[in-house]
Design brief:
mainly beta; four-stranded antiparallel β-sheet; globular
């Protein structure tokens, strides 16, 4: 099974950028579809972005379209979430997640579709 560790969170001002990393160990990330979720204080965890094992197509929640980019570097066994033009409402704990899909070409957007999760990294955006 794969273990995931997020990093790259922090405290930034509105308009700034951050790049979150999700480092995988135990299994090769190239056999997993990847997703990013976030949970703001007092709210349920929500979907942010996803991409299939094969790369290529990506999918985003409406609130981050045009600002966030999900990507992966299979050689480094790492997935990323580039976040630009950050807003205070982006403040949350961000989680990466993996869905074992060695032959698949689709992305997944629902929490229950992901079995493997990282511990989360805090992103705080001040106004």
């Amino acid at each position: 099974q794969v273990q995931l560790v997020e990093s790259g969170g922090g405290l930034v001002q509105a308009g700034a950028s951050l790049r979150l990393s999700c480092a995988a160990s135990g299994r090769t990330l190239s056999t997993y579809a990847m997703g990013w979720f976030r949970q703001a204080p007092g709210k349920e965890r929500e979907f942010v972005a996803a991409m299939p094992r094969s790369g290529g197509s990506t999918y985003y929640t409406d609130s981050v379209k045009g600002r966030f980019t999900i990507s992966r570097d299979n050689a480094k066994n790492t997935a990323y979430l580039q976040m630009n033009s950050l807003k205070p409402e982006d403040t949350a704990v961000y989680y990466c997640a993996a869905h074992y899909d060695p032959y698949g070409t689709r992305y997944y957007t629902r929490e229950y579709e992901y079995f493997y999760w990282g511990q989360g990294t805090q992103v705080t955006v001040s106004s």
